[in-house]
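User: We ran a pulldown and think these components assemble together. Before we commit to crystallization trials, I'd like a predicted model of the whole complex to look at. Sequences follow.
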Amino acid sequence: MDTFIQLTINGFTLGSVYALIALGYSLVYGILKLLNFAHGDVFMVGSFIGFGALQLLGGSTAPKVPTWLLLVLITLAAMAGCALLGVAIERFAYRPLRNAPRIAPLISALGVSFFLAYSMQLMFGSEQRDYDAFSLSGGALFFNGFDIGNVRVPLLRIVIVASAFALMIVLWLLVTRTRMGKAMRATSYDREAASMMGIDVDRVIVFAFVLGSALAGAAGVMFALRAPTDVAIGFLAGLKGFTAAVIGGIGSIPGAMAGGLILGFAEAFTQGYISTRWSDLLVFVILIVFMLFRPQGLFGKPDIKKV
Amino acid sequence: MKRAMVLALVAGIAAVLAASAVARPTATTGTDAQQAVSCKSQLKIAIVTPLTGGAGFLGNAQLSWAKYAVKRLAPGLGLKVQLLTGDTPVEQGPAPAQALAQKYVADQKVVAVIGPATSGAAAATSQTYFAAGMAHISPSATRTSLTKGTPREGTPGFFRVVPGDFIQGPTDARFMVDKLNAKKVVIIDFQEPYSVGLADAAEVVLKARNVQVIRLSTSVRTTDFSSLVTRTPSDADIVFFPTQQPPDAQTFGQQLIEQGKRAKVFGGDGANSPAQFKLPGAYVSNFAPDISGIAGTKSLIDGWKRDNPGDELESFGPPTYGAVQVALRAIKAACVANKNVLPNRRAVLRKVKQVRIPNWILGGTFRFSTKSNDPLNAKFYIFQIQPNGTYKLVG
Amino acid sequence: MPAASATAGPRIGQDEWVARSAERRGGRGGRWGVLEARLRVVPWWAWLILFVAVVAALPIGFESGYVRRVAFDTVIFMLLALGLNVVVGWGGLLDLGFVAFYGVGAYTYAVLSADRYDLHLPIFVSIPAAAVVGGIVGLLVGLPSRRLVGDYLAIVTLFFFQIFLTVSNNSESILGENVAGGPNGILNVQPLSLFGRELPVSHEGIFNVAYLYVALAFFVVVFVALRFVNASRTGRAWRSLREDALAAELMGMPVNWLKLTAFAFGAGVAALTGTLVTALNGSVFPQTFEFPLLITVYTMVILGGAGSQAGVVIGAIGISVLLEALREPGDSRFLFYALVLLGLAGTLKLSRKLALVLGGTLVLGFAAHALAGAIDGSWTAGAAQGGGRLGEWANEWVVVPGDIAGWVTPVAYIGLVSAVLTLTLLRGRTRLFLLVPTLYLAAFVWENVMLARPEPTRFVVLGAILIGVMVARPEGVLGEKRVEIV
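Assistant: Here's a predicted model for the assembly, 1188 residues in total across the polymer chains.
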């Protein structure tokens, strides 16, 4: 039973991070029908920006501000930095290819992903960066928390899951309650019609990238709080985020959230009960199964191709 | 389609005929005639190690000590030696090592190679080096099958100055049983050669001593070990964690504590890094004690620190110094035996095995074993991490 | 000439539409157009023979085993590029698992020829067998392509790649001991043997140039065979599939079958290449078949022009040489400055603007160097990597600090990337003005950052080339311009 509870907690934590990444994918795919391969690397950059901010603020052993403020600041820094990065990527690597054959922006995305990952390695080397959240407040984040039976739920995990959900709720409000959000949804249904109705499609797309990348940056910080980051994590993380988006229904926001959690649980339970060897492969298997048999995911609508 | 196939067939036959015509053994294949090199001219040795990529910290440490060794030792032996550097990032597999092997073999002035640092690169290039008569002395390739057993991956041209995994795995395992009274041990591997080799070696010894072994595996790219930790039974005593990335060992240990498991982390020489792996109570094994504790090395260390201000003393560098020392001595011996002219690289290769170095940087006297190209009587040392983060020798 | 025919009136007996076809295909005007038109008359096989002759004569000029080995590696890349061209260029399918087929071929040959398994099949059996196995695997991977398009298909192929990586790295535990060697790979693979005589892979460790000729033979066969396939019905069907799959299906093309054959052919070529490399290396390791290799081959195909065999061959040669040069600081420095100069000359043409920009950059450089040296001696104390005459000159012109502070590298690099991107947004005089400091910054970053770390630099360059080519000239060097019909 303890194992089950522990694995559930693991699943929640993993799933929240995946959900944030998945949202970024969903937002961009919904409008551009483009698989942004570089999204995972934006996530990676976010974790590095967070690390840099952490060092600027004194590092985890001697921080200059209280812990909670520290976490907020580094997350904001990562979100801002990644948003900027996302805008740049869209402007220079994807916008010129808006009307090109579909294979073109995909290849460009591959190039961006590669470029980002190795640029980071060029600048910062490929050693792992450890946030060392363990040392913050003398381990408070690890040792405080509440207990479920014999299993302790550390404060850090609660913080991560809660912030992820908060961000998702903010996003959902943005998309459903604001004009820009409405414009985004309209553009995702039919780009040409939306532009004919007076919506500035370019602005909408930039907005989508800003939101998606900011979420990826936040996800990066949350991930790195628990495990060391290095320049190579982007690709796999992006893939898992994409899988989560497909499971939930790409283009659907509640779907991305659900998909992320489902994937997190699937991974945690498979690793916990079956084997840790195949976890990377498992992600792919789930993805393929969904893509072949239910491409619209759990919450999406079947995509009818208009001729 | 039919015409196409016929024509393709014809083209193919023609091409193959042409090729086989060229492929006679008597065809010249370039500079296969080895030219003699004077010992007074500038000789070259090459170091083959990962200078960039995930294992870059290892390569750069090795490079700094290799440079230091050449600077300090060559003049004393009357040799002018230039050190060439070859980068073999671990992420790119054996390809860079193979390209570098070709490069160094083609350069007549290169008379010995330090490395390859990684066992994979050594396995991929030993044949090439040996065919060219080039001695390759590695300070860190520890895979057992490079010098022992069948199929043997290393050639008689491959030497190493540190003990192989066939010593590390069992040493660690015996320590766990004898000194730590472990009854239940979790062994983790990362689906790559180093960790799988170590894990297998340790598992054999542990099972023979009736210890319950749980074997887990994960990808080398994993950094979040929550699920592995969850699978670790609460009553396990030790988790053997042969990673090559010290921060992973630190994270894993922290996550063990987070989930309330009492097992202690036991790392291999790849986890050796006081700066990054500093979890109190954990264990690390390494092929060298901290050399600052060895008598007679003080001036050596001071000299290195002067050349490398701000760098920490760690464990991969000093064996490289030793490897260079072996190489230089072999070169000198070959020069002496051949009246100051090296007829070819094989002359150097022949002298390597006989090198004997008192006041070895890693302590004691260095000799090669007669049975294999491993050091004689080499041992692994076990450290425990103290509350203040320092490593203390315990076994 | 296209320009002339546009103004000439209608001619008797000439189909106007056919006559204007060159114009529509985007042929160039002016001097280049004339040259291009003349070169186009030369039959393709003449180019091929010329090319093969040049490569075959290389070993006469270059005796170093290393250079010959690089030539061999380049031919291998050419083969891989040809294979990928079938799937991406002719079929229009994004196959991200291509390198796995390469691996399948390598492993198959290894299993059939290594000491460990003691099968030692003759190469006339093992090499075709490996190619066939590769083709079959390609077929299997192509099966999901029936239901999936574009990005989704890319993911499925990536999935297959992941399976291959996992299986090959973990084969000890999946397939049992000693089946495929696991992460340690398979060693002691026999070299090629023709008609009973073994072809040694090296003489005294130095690459045996006979293997270069064997590779060249493979290349010729594959090039010719693929060319004939492309000229046949299948090739024409592939073109229609690529241009508009829906229309092709409506016209009765067996779209699914076509996709499968594209996959199979590409995979077969890749597998064939794998056998050759395995024979030469005498071993196969799972770590060889990783994602960076995939991106490398893609860059070659995209740069050269997907859809054009000659193009991808040129792309392969260019990238292969570039990558090899990047290993050596002296060579790569030369390449860097040469390419920058060529790029400038290409965009600005030989004009006053070019002289101004170059002059300005040189002056800025010397001024900055003098200034930096005056402020603090250690700022110019460092030595440019690699030495050589160009290196010494670079030392005088570029600020090479003895010790770089940690923050300088990221700031300079990000600054350079931002400057280059901004340049693409500007026009006219502002652009020229910004060009000067950007060039100097580029030299600075190159000398201090990229030369010191050649490995990430290679991939950064590849990524940049991919993006740049797709954005600026998606058809690459020799490809055909494609227009998406919506």
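Strands of chain A lie at 145-148, 151-154. That may be worth checking against your pulldown data before setting up trials.

User: Thanks, that helps.
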